[in-house]
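Anyone opening a protein record will find just a pair of labelled lines. A complete record is shown below as an example.
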Amino acid sequence: MEKISIQKLMELYADTISKCGTYLLSENDVVIGYNIFEEFDTGVISFLHTDSLQRLNDAGLISDDIMQKSSILRDLVLQLQQGDNWNVNAVRNSTEWKKVLELADEIKTMLD
């Protein structure tokens, strides 16, 4: 399989982060479901993977701090996938999802 370019990886990483955040709380269930359980979920697996984050960090596109926070974000989401909070209602109401949404917002701010 061909390795994606560092520019494309950064674009996909930033797109993944953009699909999550507290802004979703003002959206309807369909938008939350699509953004979190289709777009964000897929990106978390690939573009927030340790190898991808390390490539972005090595290229100087993300800082050590962003890399660490992105890794924590990925771990939090992977934990949520294994439990009972993998649904839109939980996104709106659980403290675990609140941490995920706020951490995504924090990372977005750091990327700007």
The radius of gyration is 14 Å. The helical segments are 6-18, 29-47, 50-58, 64-81, 88-93, 95-111. Residues 6-111 form one domain. The chain has one domain: 6-111.
